[in-house]
Design a protein that fits this description.
188 residues; globular
Length: 188
């Protein structure tokens, strides 16, 4: 199948809007708990509904193509266009309802494929970005599991040299990616 699975042309704008709406939820959530005023609670509820609706939490939304059996089967079989779409989705890293679970499913399929050099380079950049991302990442262990397939001594040195902010959970992500269990060859 050579058709394009997903049209990414307006995806950067959608991801930016998702991130903005997610930040609005976080901002109003803090205020809601501190004041407990009905107006603040209503503002939080509105922000959550707006984010939830925009993120397309219905099965017919286009984001869910990445979780469909058809797409996951095509990806597992190594279809070039599905691989390209999966990597592009991971590069944009949208954050919305169930997105971490979707990313985990994509990473599981990608881990079982023999990636090209270009795809491995893209995956390495995605992992470095994920280490530094301050948002929660329930799928992070699946990024670490990719290291057996794409890891090189040079990439291990790159992870070690990342300028990770002094935030415990980000330092933990970096440390996780340096654990021996995730690497094939540790000669560096």
């Amino acid at each position: 199948m050579s058709k394009s699975w997903f049209d990414f042309k307006d995806f950067p704008d959608r991801v930016a809007e998702l991130n903005r709406l997610n930040q609005a939820v976080a901002d109003t959530s803090d205020l809601r708990w501190r004041t407990r005023r009905p107006a603040d609670i209503a503002a939080w509820e509105k922000a959550v509904k707006t984010w939830y609706d925009y993120s397309g939490c219905s099965r017919d939304d286009k984001f869910y193509i990445f979780e469909s059996d058809r797409f996951l089967t095509a990806l597992a079989s190594g279809e070039a266009e599905a691989r390209k779409c999966a990597l592009t989705f991971l590069e944009y890293d949208p954050y919305y309802f169930r997105s971490g679970y979707m990313k985990a499913k994509l990473l599981i399929r990608l881990k079982h494929l023999l990636l090209t050099e270009d795809e491995m380079a893209r995956m390495r950049a995605i992992i470095c970005k994920a280490i530094l991302d301050r948002r929660p990442k329930c799928e992070f262990r699946y990024y670490a599991r990719m290291l057996k397939n794409i890891g090189t001594p040079e990439f291990r040195r790159q992870i070690r040299a990342l300028a990770v902010p002094d935030i415990p959970y980000l330092k933990d992500r970096q440390a996780m990616c340096l654990q021996k269990v995730y690497w094939q060859d540790l000669s560096d």
